[in-house]
Structures are given as C-alpha cells and as structure tokens.
What we know:
Layout: E1 2-5, E2 11-15, E3 18-34, E4 39-54, E5 57-71, E6 77-78, H1 88-110, H2 115-128, H3 135-147, H4 159-169, H5 178-193, H6 200-212, H7 217-227
Helix pairs in contact: 1-2, 1-3, 1-4, 1-5, 1-6, 2-3, 2-5, 4-6, 5-6, 5-7, 6-7
Amino acid sequence: xxxxxxxxxxxxxxxxxxxxxxxxxxxxxxxxxxxxxxxxxxxxxxxxxxxxxxxxxxxxxxxxxxxxxxxxxxxxxxxxxxxxxxxxxxxxxxxxxxxxxxxxxxxxxxxxxxxxxxxxxxxxxxxxxxxxxxxxxxxxxxxxxxxxxxxxxxxxxxxxxxxxxxxxxxxxxxxxxxxxxxxxxxxxxxxxxxxxxxxxxxxxxxxxxxxxxxxxxxxxxxxxxxxxxxx
Length: 231
C-alpha cells in the first residue's frame, strides 16, 4: 500500500498497490427464480477471467473463474445451481401437471369412474390451474388410458403408470415443502374415497404417489387414514 495525502496534508486511504480484477463475459441468458429478489427475473450467465492489478491497472492473468449467474435486476451473482430452481411460472405448470396425473392415476385404479370420484378429481384439477377441466374430459382420458396398450384399468399400479407418476412428481418434490407434498397425496386420497373405501389398486397407486413425493411409508399410511376422517 502507498500512502496518499489529502488536500489538508493528512494521510488519506492508502492506494492499493496490488489486487485482482475480474472481467466478465456473457455466455448465455434466460429467466430464473432469483434467490435475492425472491421472484422471476432475467439473468446472464457469465464466465470470468481474473487478472492481477498494479495500482488498479490489470497486468498479469490469474486464471478463470465462474461461471456465475447474474440477476438483471439486483445484479447479484449466484452459482449456476440457482438455475435448478424452477421459475414461478414453471413451478405452477409442474404442480398443475402433477395434480392432473395423480387424479387420472387414482381414477384409473378405481375402475369405475363414478360421478362422485369424477367430481372430486375435476375439482382438484381445476384448483391446480386447469380451469376448464370437466368430469367428461377426465372420464374420456381414463377410458383412453384403459384402451392404450400396456395400461392397467382398475388394477394395481402398472409399470407404465408408475413411470408417469414419477416423471410428474420426481422433479417437483424437491421444491415442495412437506405440507405441499402431503397436500397432493391427500387430494389423491380424497378422490379415491369419494365413491367408498380404498380399493387395493387405489392404495397401490397412492403408495406410488407417496414414494415419488419422498413421503415415507409410515407417513403415507397416516395420511391415508387421516383422509378417511371428515375435516
């Protein structure tokens, strides 16, 4: 450090003799959920090159750094793992699709598609974001599932249906609080109970839903029993 004298002759803040500076280069952009702002924002993905500085002037390369994600609003830098968190829009779509898939799986396992079950399923799907979902649409989709090769209708959760449940729920589960994961399972349970007690096939489907949502077996059993008690 070199001392610097102010106008009054007193020592001011010393000038930094040596330091480092990073030059950032944009390599991509998009939209992400900014942890700093707490909402969806545009971002730039940056890579950087560090240099030693002498009196603030870059002189020698010191290597690369990054990549990082820079929020276009708050300008803060975050690790690229921030991009793993879905945007609010994407999260809403994932949740909507998850509820829809669970509703169809439970209806298919029930085997009868009674009016009360269809009404409960349609109400859950509409609440999740499919505002124009009707009982008739769900019934038609369940019939299509039954007619599709390799599908199982009114029986235990087959491999194809289990895969679809995991595809819909696995990416969502890490971003849901425990109460959110339990809520999806309870919605499926209420659809199953709308026309009477659980069938073995419905229990099997709901167990698969619980596993995909990373809910332990004991908690799945507890929640399925809790759903039987009117709130």
